Amino acid sequence: MPQDFVRRLSDTGYGFERTVGIGDKVHLDITIVLLLIVISAYGLLVLYSAVYPNQSAVISQIVKISIAGLVMIILAQISPIFYQRLAPWLYIFAVFLLVLTFFFGTEVNGSKRWLRIPGFVGFQPSELMKLALPMALASYFHDRHLPPKKRHIFWALMIITLPTALIAPQPDLGTALIIFVSGILVLLLAGVAWKFVFGAIGVAFLSAPAVWFLLKDYQQRRILTLLDPERDPLGDGWNIIQSKTAIGSGGLSGKGLFEGTQSHLNFLPESQTDFIIAVLAEEMGFLGVVFLLILYFVILTRGIVIAIQAQDTFGRLLAGTITFTFFVYVFVNIAMVSGLLPVVGIPLPLVSYGGTSILTLFASFGIMMSIHTHRRIML
After folding, report:
1. What is the pLDDT of residues 267-309, one digit of tens each?
2. What is the distance of C-alpha 339 from the center of its chain?
3. Would 2 be classed as within a structural domain?
4. Strand segments (E) across the chain
5. What is the pTM of this model?
6. Gap between the Cα atoms of 132 and 97, Å rounded
7. What is the rounded CA–CA span in Å between residue 24 and residue 26?
8. Rounded distance, CA 137 to CA 146, Å?
9. CA dist 118 to 107, 114, 115, 127, Å?
């Protein structure tokens, strides 16, 4: 063979090299890390205004974000192959914890969502399931032909239904909804035909009358309040009415930090948690909300890019599901606060005061960065 046609590999054993940046060396996506820092700082500013002059909540939030950030960095160092192998066992463990919660959970404000282990702090097993379910489904479809066959769709729906059925009666309809949607997102990304999706929506509408009688009284009132907040303006409709008032009064540029009347005069309950975007809209106005939405959109775009660039089915499905579930969080919270959806207790990502939800969110981004930075050279 002529020498010109001999392709020689370098002495290192690699014929091709992928450009490795600083982020790849430390297994972090710099864009996402910077966005998380900016949004978290923005959220702390809004939280500081919402709870002023009480500073304990802000300090607690800083500690929680710091711990969650450390967890994210650690998880980003682990190979996605480990997560793929861990996924089925993590799902089984999360289901086991949900069963324990169902029988032995601690009831707080009428909901049995917390599991307290002696010697440890309490936690919500449903938060673990937010990660375990999409990981399990992505692992399930990893070695299977896509789009999935009907029997695979059936078993995937069973994997989705089990934790949803365990969480909804706690009652925690908001978390059950998020987990169910995250599972459906995996199916959609796996290539399930839209006819199955529309069929499922049709079944949901047909079963709505039966589901209505399974809802708790307060859940039924929340739906009725969505349709007509004025039916009980001093009771069930109070939160939505005050939230809309806060959003509308902010105008274009807002009243300024610490100048919001709805939150500082205690007209708006839960102003530091589920309804914190109403505080943002009142004090920083339409422009302040748009700025936050732009940051969210950039994260969404970056997540889609990472999912597209993933080199295997597990990585693509999991990164895509994490990204779009994040979007669902944002959409549901804003729609809820604006009176377009019933109040279901979904926090605004990286802005609302919270603990386990922040940890779950940062852990998700850590796994996403692991998928992106552990890419292998494919020959």
Report:
1. 777 778 888 999 999 999 999 999 999 999 999 999 999 999 9
2. 21
3. no
4. 106-108, 111-114
5. 0.86
6. 12
7. 5
8. 13
9. 16, 13, 10, 20
